[in-house]
TrEMBL record:
It comes from the Bacteria. Residues 400-437 form the SWIM-type domain. Pfam families: SWIM. It comes from Actinoallomurus vinaceus. This is SWIM zinc finger domain-containing protein.
Length: 440
């Protein structure tokens, strides 16, 4: 799969000097539309040290390749202003770890100038400066502030970064996957530190493990069990370690599992003063989110509903389904399907702590989402070729038999036999579902 080139252009490099942290922004989207250098916030951070450590954690994930580590070009984090908070997001180079730092209203003492999404420059000089942040007051400006003097002789700092399409797909996949998670465990700050420091490191941590509640903590177990959370590659939680001195709690999220289930994704959220840092891990260290297939259902849904709901979004910190249903005239279940489809285009994310979507706009072509999922294209080709035929309780698709039972489906193809639906639906199930709904 070919790469695409993302260009970041900044008026200056981000810097930290004399207690003033200036994060330069690249082109993005604000409430009024596209903006060259959006200006989102200026004011003080109420607790500078954990905020600086959180920004470093997000930047660390962006420059790390957890599977087959090699030198990677740095990718700049995405920042979204949702009016009452700032969200910083990044994806690992291998596409297997998603990181997000939410600076909530209690962490910010200043003025929100606008809402929107853009990239922020977090280069090596800034990272080195952030490591030295202590308890002194820290002023934060996201975007050029009102004192910035720009002349015709000024230089623009430009970065051209090749982004693998699988990295872009990962952003779309992770919000669909995490929307199905539930809170499974919560540890106090002391127990969280004890648990994280006890995890195996390096090559011993390469396989998928599981954790189950054990008193006030968690213990490792080799297999899935009711209430368990998958912990695939425990070393991928290392970005949490520097924030443990500031932590108030650690929460683990995951899907419901049964004995014998295959490894699955999980999310680990560190609760900090006025902020949250979450790391979401793919089901295996060698497996990026890009191939999980969670977006396929959303991409088969009606695009018109997504267009209508998308037009009503305004960078809300919490997307209210009932309110969107009233405004759009759509029933709530169609609004939820529309949000899922918007998520496949990177236009919404999912906040586990609040169990709600939030609006943001990732800097890539939303039309790429469907083009980057060949299983969906192959399913539509099977329908166009007349290869979908009902046969009693079964649907025959391209020589394979698809069976529907309640809300579940299975197939006789090799893909289904290997993954059992753990990496999304095969082309035959997708084709059968689309044909059954009459969305051809």
């Amino acid at each position: 799969m070919s790469d695409v080139t993302q260009s970041y252009a900044y008026l200056h490099r981000s810097s930290l000097a004399d207690g003033r942290l200036g994060l330069e922004t690249s082109g993005g989207t604000a409430l009024a539309g596209p903006a060259a250098h959006p200006r989102f916030f200026s004011g003080f951070l109420t607790d500078p040290a954990p905020a600086a450590a959180g920004l470093l954690a997000v930047a660390k994930v962006a420059r790390t390749r957890y599977f087959l580590p090699i030198q990677e070009r740095v990718r700049d984090p995405v920042v979204t202003s949702n009016g009452d908070r700032l969200r910083f997001e990044s994806f690992s180079a291998c596409c297997g770890v998603y990181a997000r730092l939410d600076l909530l209203s209690d962490a910010l003492d200043g003025e929100m100038h606008d809402r929107g999404t853009t990239n922020v420059d977090v280069g090596e000089p800034l990272r080195q400066s952030l490591t030295r942040v202590g308890r002194d007051p820290l002023h934060l400006a996201v975007g050029p502030d009102e004192l910035t003097v720009t002349t015709f002789d000024g230089t623009v700092v430009e970065k051209k970064v090749p982004l693998p399409q699988r990295w872009l797909r990962g952003f779309a996949e992770v919000q669909v996957i995490t929307a199905g998670f539930e809170p499974r465990a919560e540890l106090s700050a002391a127990e969280a530190a004890r648990f994280l420091r006890s995890l195996p490191k390096g090559s011993r941590a390469s396989g998928a493990q599981w954790v189950v509640p054990a008193g006030r903590s968690l213990r490792l177990t080799p297999r899935a069990a009711p209430g368990a959370v998958c912990l695939p590659g425990p070393q991928r939680l290392e970005a949490l370690a520097p924030l443990l001195p500031y932590a108030r709690a650690l929460r683990a999220y995951g899907p419901a599992v049964r004995p014998g289930d295959l490894p699955c994704a999980s999310a680990w959220e560190l609760d900090l003063p006025g902020m949250r840092l979450v790391l979401t891990l793919s089901p295996e260290v060698r497996r990026g989110f890009s191939g999980e297939g969670a977006v396929l259902d959303g991409l088969t849904r009606d695009e018109a509903d997504a267009d209508l709901v998308g037009a009503l979004l305004a960078f809300e910190p919490r997307v209210e389904v009932d309110l969107l249903a009233d405004r759009s005239g759509l029933p709530a279940d169609r609004v939820r399907h529309a949000l899922t489809r918007l998520g496949t285009a990177g236009r919404v994310g999912f906040d586990l702590a609040e169990a709600a979507y939030f609006h943001r706009e990732l800097p890539y072509d939303a039309g790429l989402a469907e083009a980057m999922n060949p299983r969906l294209a192959n399913a539509r080709a099977l329908i166009a070729a007349g290869e979908v035929r009902p046969d009693g309780d079964l649907t025959v698709v391209g020589g394979q038999r698809v069976r529907f039972e309640s809300d579940a489906a299975s197939c006789t193809c090799p893909w289904w036999a290997e993954y059992r639906g753990s990496r999304g639906k095969c082309k035959h199930v997708l084709a059968a579902e689309i044909a059954r709904r009459g969305d051809t």
